[in-house]
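Whiteboard transcription, Tuesday session. T.W. wrote the structure tokens on the left side:
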């Protein structure tokens, strides 16, 4: 089995600009530049034969040509009373939504079940420890909510595998698809 997802990578200059914001929040496990990405579809654990089918189906999803996105604002995901992650938002983009939908349908054609969830594009900046102080989280969000990136060109997406380690997830680019 192999844990797979499709995602957009982040250009170096954008990662550098984000790194300057990845500070000032105790209990945050900040994602390093090579871990930053915008997930299109998370497939979970997939057996190798279906992974191969998926990689073929994703070829068909890679249509429409290049486009641009921009990051805007920050936010948090949580469950119950606990905030688990802080992220940079992605400006609404029809092209991005369509691409995410295509990478999701590719899973269906490869007989890979995916969770039923609305697509909320975001770029996770940190996962948070349970000890992170809600007031500090709110202050960090307020302090960065005006984030607005220059246009980010999107001319490809990647199929990544994820290996869970005690230091967090390690991602490896398995295949790249040009739009
Ligand atoms: P996240 O950044 O919000 O945690 C690899 O784990 C990528 O797939 C992450 O970007 C993660 O989103 C995303 N993802 C989506 N659904 C997931 C799930 N159920 N479990 C783990 N990662 C998921």
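and on the right, the sequence the group agreed on:
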């Amino acid at each position: 089995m192999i844990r797979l997802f499709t995602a957009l990578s982040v250009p170096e200059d954008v990662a550098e600009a984000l790194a300057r914001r990845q500070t000032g929040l105790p209990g945050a496990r900040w994602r390093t530049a090579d871990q930053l990405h915008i997930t299109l579809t998370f497939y979970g654990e997939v057996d190798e034969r279906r992974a191969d089918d998926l990689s073929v189906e994703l070829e068909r999803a890679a249509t429409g040509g290049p486009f641009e996105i921009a990051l805007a604002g920050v936010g948090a995901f949580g469950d119950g009373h606990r905030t688990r992650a802080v992220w940079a938002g992605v400006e609404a983009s029809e092209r991005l939504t369509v691409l995410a939908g295509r990478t999701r349908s590719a899973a269906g054609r490869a007989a890979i079940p995916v969770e039923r969830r609305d697509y909320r594009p975001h770029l996770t900046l940190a996962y948070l420890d349970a000890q992170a102080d809600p007031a500090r989280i709110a202050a960090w969000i307020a302090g960065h909510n005006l984030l607005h990136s220059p246009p980010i060109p999107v001319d490809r997406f990647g199929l990544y595998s994820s290996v869970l380690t005690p230091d967090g997830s390690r991602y490896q680019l398995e295949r790249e698809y040009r739009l």
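Someone added at the bottom: The mean pLDDT is 96.
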